[in-house]
Amino acid sequence: MWYKIFLENLLLEVVIGILPFEREKRQKIRIDGEFVYFKNNEDEFLDYRDLRGFLSGAFMQEFGLLEEALEFFAKEIPKNFPQIKKYRLKVTKLEIFGDCQVALEISQ
After folding, report:
1. pLDDT at 12 over 90
2. Going from the N-terminus, what domains does the chain have, and what CATH number goes with each?
């Protein structure tokens, strides 16, 4: 049976960006994602705690562009979670501007 896990409003303070002030101070981001996986039997499932921990842990490293972070996930999600067949992942900079938020999204 196919399932979809929604991971929404994961808030983190990270170093991401190429502007000088972004390299000096952590900024708030929000991660939202949808992850489609197939479950063959009762003992098999995708532990969303592991998925959350993986996403949070990845931001222990510092990324330059949002694109770099998303490229990292495009490479690492299939390696770490082979049961995920499709996903959508959105990273939003919450405080980059006073009048709007900026987000990038990938889907595989």
Report:
1. yes
2. 2-107 (3.30.1130.10)
